[in-house]
Write a structure and sequence with these properties.
- The protein is of the alpha/beta class.
- The chain folds into 3 domains: 36 residues, no CATH class; 95 residues, Malic enzyme, N-terminal domain (Rossmann fold); 208 residues, NAD(P)-binding Rossmann-like Domain (Rossmann fold, 3-Layer(aba) Sandwich).
- The chain is built from 16 helices and 10 strands.
- The strands form 2 sheets. It has a 6-stranded mixed β-sheet. A 4-stranded parallel β-sheet has the order 2-1-3-4, with helices on both faces.
């Protein structure tokens, strides 16, 4: 009989594990159950009247069930944080944490739904079959390139908002930060030369949103260098990037992309050599967003950049998705939106940026705890529904 694999050590008294013990969520009733009269209203026979009304007019479910304020946070655990493919059970703590953020910052009830992974067809079908319970679907930590097709097919199949936060939440907050960083260095967005390091979920979405905001010169790099049409090793989504980016037809490694670049946006991990940073234009902007270890340490980045941002909370300018997704869903649910459009994403980014009326090198985005962020984003989204 083979030995059991060694289990990673952990300390049950460690404050981290204590904070997670028993899970981080519970279910609470919104109506009192005090006596037989309450029972007859909340359950049988009274509930039958509500069921019949919804059967006759499905739109009433938004008013008379939790569907109108509930989002499913769906993952198959194949791309969790920087941990990779750790499976649905190990993804649960992250999805519970996401649900806490939804509730705290947006007043949205969110339910973790961790599925066994499968083919794109299987996951799309499983999520679509669960959808009647929810007013929106937040996809989370699903590996690329599967995540692109899953989101697109769900958007086609469902009449509720579907939002892959790893893509679009990241892109929205990056754009918000870049709007203000450009102000700090006295530049207009369309004039910037941008390098996006990472051609996965976040890199694709960041690139598309920056282009929609008017930035024309974007070069995308993956682990093999610049994404360009001459490469023969490109997946479908990278081929699309090759056809729509890199207007100066630069080829080669990240080093070639960094020559004269105004902006570096890292969403891939890895490390950027200091020599590459030295090739950037003066008054550069560096967003090194890998967590917990940025592609460029902020101290080093500050030698070459006028504005530096990371994904960490212990340095200035944290590019954190929580600035976006609670308000995005709050606005979509409140307005009855059936989808989250590109215009809504742009409006959300501009609304977040506007919350810092006088940006500085140390403050290009608001704190995640700044009051009213979700409300402002929700109004921006709802106005376009």
């Amino acid at each position: 009989m083979s030995a059991h694999p060694a289990q990673p050590a952990y300390d049950a008294f460690d404050p981290i594990f204590v904070a997670h013990e028993g899970g981080k969520l519970t279910v609470e009733a919104t109506k009192p159950l005090r006596d037989r009269a309450d029972l007859s209203l909340l359950y049988t026979p009274g509930v039958a009247d509500v069921c019949r009304a919804i059967a006759a007019d499905p739109s009433l479910a938004t008013r008379y069930t939790t569907r109108g304020n509930t989002v499913a946070v769906v993952s198959d655990g194949t791309a969790v944080l920087g941990l990779g493919d750790i499976g649905p059970l190990a993804a649960m703590p992250v999805m519970e944490g996401k649900a806490i953020l939804f509730k705290h910052f947006g007043g949205v009830d969110a339910v973790p739904v961790c599925l066994e992974t499968g083919t794109v067809d299987e996951l799309v079908d499983a999520i679509a079959r669960l959808a009647p319970t929810y007013g929106g679907i937040n996809l989370e930590d699903i590996s690329a390139p599967r995540c692109f097709e899953i989101e697109e097919r769900l958007k086609e199949r469902l009449d509720i908002p579907v939002f892959h936060d790893d893509q679009h939440g990241t892109a929205i907050v990056v754009l918000a930060g870049l709007i203000n960083a450009a102000i700090v260095v006295g530049r207009e967005l369309p004039s910037l030369r941008v390098v996006v390091s990472g051609a996965g979920a976040a890199g694709v979405a960041v690139t598309k949103l920056l282009q929609r905001a008017g930035i024309r010169d974007v070069i995308v790099c993956d682990s093999r260098g610049i994404v360009h049409p001459g490469r023969t090793d490109l997946t479908h989504h990278k081929s699309h990037l090759a056809a729509t980016t890199n207007p100066r037809s630069v080829s080669g490694s990240l080093t070639e992309a960094m020559r004269g670049a105004d902006v570096y946006i890292g969403v891939s991990g890895g490390k950027v050599p200091e020599a590459d940073l030295a090739l950037m234009a003066s008054d550069a902007i560096i967003f090194a967003l890998a967590n917990p270890d940025p592609e460029v340490h902020p101290t080093l980045a500050a030698k070459y950049a006028a504005v530096v941002a990371t994904g960490r909370s212990d340095f200035p300018n944290q590019i954190n998705n929580v600035l976006a997704f609670p308000g995005i869903f709050r606005g979509a649910l409140d307005s009855g939106a059936r989808a989250i459009t590109e215009e809504m994403k742009l409006a959300a980014a501009r609304a977040i940026a506007a919350l810092v009326p006088s940006p500085t090198a140390e403050e290009i985005v608001p704190s995640v705890f700044a009051p009213g962020v979700s409300d402002v984003v929700a109004r921006a989204v709802a106005s376009l529904a």
